[in-house]
Amino acid sequence: MRVGLVCGDGVPASGLLTIFRNVVGLGVDLQLLDLPVAADLGYSWRPDKPAFFPHGPREQESSALLEPTRQAPPVPGDPGQAAAEWTAIRMSVADSAALPAVERARLHERIDRLARHYRHHFSQWMRRNRIDWTIAVNMTLSDAVPVTKALHAAARDHYRERRAGGVLFWDHDLFGSCAVYDEGVRMYPDRPNEFTPVPQAGPGVRWAVVSEALADEAATYPVPERPRVVPNILPRVPTEPLEPKHEQFLRDLDLDPRRPILLNPVRVFRVKGVELALELLSAARSASAERGLPSPYLLVFGSLAEDPSYAEEVRSTARRLGLLPDVRFLDGVPLCSVQNADGSWRLDEIDLLRTAAASGGGVVFTPNTDDVETVGLGPALAAVADLPCASTSYAAFTPVYGEDFFVVPVDPDPAGMARSGAELVEAMQSRRAGERRMADLLRRNRAIADRRFPTGPWATLLTEMAKSAGEPPAPPG
Fold it and tell me: Which run of H or of E encompasses 420?
C-alpha cells in the first residue's frame, strides 16, 4: 500500500512528523507500506511560518522514508498578497459569527476560489504518486479551510476513480481543545462553523483522533459518528552503547560528554514554553553547582525560524540567564539521523534520547498554557528512554498518563522553579547512581506508557486500509 502525507504544520519537522515516522515504521514491519511516502508539508498555505512560506526551506530533506513535494504552490501570484489572503481567511473563519451576511457569502467565494486550485493539486498529486490512502494530519483545524475543503473533494474524486482507498483525517488537535492565540486573537473558532469542513462518514473518508477526550469533543460536532481513537505510537529506543555518530554529534555541538543532557522535545512556538525550560535549566545549573555535580545542557528540538518574534524572546531569556553556552537549538529534528556533507551529524529523536540517556540526563516539557496540549508526548518520550521528566501542569496530563506517572513538577514561580531544578537534579543523580526507588519509578513510567500508547490500534487500522486499497473495483452500476 502506498500512503501519502498532508500535514498542516507548515514547518520542515514537527512532533507530528516524528509520530508519523513511528506509524510508518510499524506499517513497514507489518509489510503493509511501501516507501518512500510522498508528502505535502503545508508550506504553501501557512504564512504564519514566514521562514518556510510558500516553498519550504531552501534545501528540503528527503530520505528513504519521506519525499516532500517540490511543486510550485498551486496558487500562483505574489507571496505577500497570498500571505495576506490566507491570513485574512483564517481570521474571518475564526470570527465568522461577527460577519454580516454579505461578508459571509464573500468568504465562501474566497474559500471556494482557493479550494478549486488545491482540489486539482491533490487529485494530480495522488494520481502521480499512485497513492492509495492520504493521511491528512491536523487538517480539520481551520488554518487553511480551502485546503481542507479541497482534500475532501479530492478524496471523493479519488474514490470514484478507484473504488478503493481515500483520505484518513488524523487529528491531534481540535477546535475547542486548541486554544492558540495570535496577538491576543484566537486562531480557531471553539467549535466547527459553516466554513470548517469536518470529516463525514462515507466512501473514501476515515477519521481518527489520538485521545478519548478529542473523540468526546468531536461527538458534539455535526457528524454522524465519533471518530476512531487511535493513540500515538512511541519510538523504540535501543539501550546499546553509543555509536561513533553520537560521539561525533557531541563534538559537532561542542558538548562535554561528562555533562548531562536535558532534551526539550518541542518546537520553538509560544505555547510550548521554551522560556520556562530555560528558567528550569538555570535552576538546575545552580542546584548542580551546590552539589558539586556537572551542569546540564539543554537541547531544544525546534527551529528558531518558525516564530521569529517568540524566538527573540527565547534568545533574550537565554542571554539574561547567562545560558547561551549551555543551550543548543537543533533547528528541527530530522525523521532519520543524517550525516551532512561536511561530516557532521543531525540526530533524530531516537538517537537524541539515546544520547541523553547515556549522559545521565532527562527530558524537560514545559507548556506555558494548560489548554493547548491534547496529549503532550514529552513525558512519554522520557518513559521509553528510562529518563526522568520535569513537566509543568497541563489539563491533558492526568487523563493521558494517570495519577501514578512520575514527573518532577515544574512551578513557574521563582521559588518553585528553584525547587523544581533541585528535584530534577536529584532525580538525574539518583538514576545515574542506580538507586532502586528511582529505577522503580522509571520502570512504572515505561509500563504506563506502553499501556497508554499501544501499537495494536494502528496495526488494525493499517491492515484495514491495506485491505481496502487492494480491493478490486466495484462493477459499474
Answer: helix 414-432
